[in-house]
Design goal:
The protein is mainly alpha-helical and 250 residues long. The chain has one domain. The chain contains 11 helices and no strands. The radius of gyration is 21 Å and the shape is globular. The N and C termini lie far apart (84 Å).
């Protein structure tokens, strides 16, 4: 009888532990991930921001400061929105959401513009060579980020779609932070890093719901394909892409 009671108690403890994990992930996953992504950005950019921005010699274009402020504002926005959902302030969340929509609408053309401006700066001022092909990376980032945010706005009344799309969109921006680590950049695998962040969302779904939401299943494969194309254009730099970047840079 004692052994039987011990077995029942062990099963109860296991179920209670599982319930606690599910409850935590259901309620706090997106808030925790928004904080983790902000921490990743701070960690990655701390390796270069001092010499490349604050004390850059020669000074970097002023638009780079605007770019940094806008993209940091997005992370603050994500943390705030995740917090509001956690404390069930949905009406405030929806109101502030329109600020995020406007911010994203600025970030996409700003991201493309600063990529072009900095490539011209690196070429003409810092005299770096063979860097134009890298434009494929920020262009891909802005294309995918803008598409995911647009879909999130379209499905704003479907929370299960909306929150996953915004989470994925923010993960797309993480290649800039991950790429600050030499190993990830030199081996062309910074996209793998951001995809693994998205996989964490899939694992969360599997634990909480017993299945992975179809947003991930339909969105991640084409996103990986576009990432592969961007890396190909950057590293292989085919002739047609060389002509395209020359036309863009002038």
């Amino acid at each position: 009888m004692a052994i039987g009671n011990a077995g029942i108690a062990a099963q109860f403890d296991k179920k209670a532990s599982t319930f606690t994990v599910k409850t935590f992930l259901r309620r706090y996953f997106y808030l925790c991930m928004s904080l983790a992504l902000a921490g990743l950005v701070a960690w990655g950019f701390s390796r270069t921001v001092d010499s490349h921005l604050f004390h850059g010699n020669p000074p970097r274009p002023w638009l780079l400061w605007v770019h940094g402020a806008a993209f940091c504002s997005w992370l603050v926005f994500l943390i705030l929105q995740s917090s509001l959902v956690t404390v069930r302030k949905v009406s405030v969340h929806r109101l502030i959401g329109w600020f995020g929509a406007g911010l994203a609408a600025v970030m996409v053309p700003l991201g493309v513009t600063i990529a072009i401006v900095m490539t011209r700066f690196d070429t003409s001022v810092l005299h770096q060579t063979d860097i134009a092909s890298f434009l494929a990376i920020p262009f891909e980032d802005m294309l995918v980020f803008g598409t995911l945010v647009a879909l999130a706005i379209y499905w704003r009344k479907k929370p299960e779609y909306h929150k996953r799309l915004l989470f994925m969109a923010t993960c797309v921006l993480m290649d800039a932070a991950i790429g600050r680590f030499d190993f990830w950049f030199d081996h062309n695998i910074f996209y793998v890093g951001l995809d693994l962040l998205i996989v964490l969302g899939m694992v969360r779904d599997w634990i909480v719901d017993g299945r992975v939401h179809k947003v991930y299943l339909y969105t991640l494969p084409p996103m990986i394909a576009v990432q592969g194309l961007a890396v190909y254009l950057w590293r292989v730099n085919p002739g047609w892409w060389q002509g395209t970047t020359r036309g863009i840079l002038g």
